[in-house]
Write a structure and sequence with these properties.
CATH topology: Rossmann fold
CATH architecture: 3-Layer(aba) Sandwich
Number of strands: 7
Strand content: 15-25%
Radius of gyration: 16 Å
Number of helices: 7
Shape: globular
Order of helices and strands: HHEHEHEEHEHEHE
Structural class: alpha/beta
């Protein structure tokens, strides 16, 4: 998600350390201590302006949520939502999705969401796609055994690529939706992008894939 630079984002984030973790490496393997409970941990890589992660946290107080985004201005908008919601089960991180093993211990995360990731359509950029095999290896390391990825996109090319990537990696494709908003799926929480694309009549694709225990 490309967002214009927001003035004062650095100061804003620095003023709210209870929501934005400025030194996430110190919590590696100890995220349950950060949350103050032993609830399952779900993370969203590329959380954008935070609508999805905040709404999920409100719906599921029994789960701890961590929203991750590399862009400072974007994270500041997510912080707006978290502060307004005033919920204890959300944390935000400004880190790179390729370096998650620096911030999470092996098998510390219970479930991962990838929502409307950058499709990087050119072949030379394949390694940047969040469903590329090197990213999958990272996710597998931090997820619990048989951990799941829930993936949504409006981009048919990225969806097809991701299905193939999951399969080639040896994951189990558990459920697939080719047109989520006309399906019988219940409990869908939309992202900002999802609402925008859906209002334009674009299909929303969704898949749940599980890593196989080795």
């Amino acid at each position: 998600m490309r967002v214009r630079k927001r003035k004062g984002s650095d100061e804003y984030i620095a003023e709210n350390p209870q929501w934005v973790v400025t030194e996430p490496t110190t919590w590696r393997g100890k995220w349950h201590e950060r949350f103050g409970n032993d609830h399952p941990i779900h993370i969203e890589v590329g959380s954008g302006k935070g609508r999805f992660i905040t709404e999920m946290a409100k719906l599921h107080p029994e789960i701890n949520y961590i929203g991750i985004d590399i862009q400072l201005s974007v994270l500041s908008y997510a912080l707006d939502r978290v502060i307004e919601a005033d919920i204890p089960n959300v944390q935000l991180l400004r880190v790179d999705g390729s370096e998650l093993t620096n911030y999470f211990a092996d098998h510390e995360v219970d479930l991962m969401y990838l929502n409307f990731s950058d499709p990087w359509p050119k072949s030379r950029h394949e390694k940047r796609r969040l469903t590329y095999k090197t990213f999958l290896a990272t996710y597998e390391q931090i997820l619990v055994l048989n951990g799941e990825i829930h993936f949504k996109t409006d981009n048919q090319g990225l969806f097809e690529y991701s299905l193939a990537s999951f399969s080639q990696y040896g994951m189990e494709i558990e459920k697939v939706w080719l047109d989520l908003h006309t399906s019988s799926y219940e409990g869908n929480v939309m992202t900002e992008y999802e609402e925008k694309f859906s209002n334009k009549g674009q299909r929303i694709y969704r898949v749940e894939a599980r890593f196989k225990a080795k």
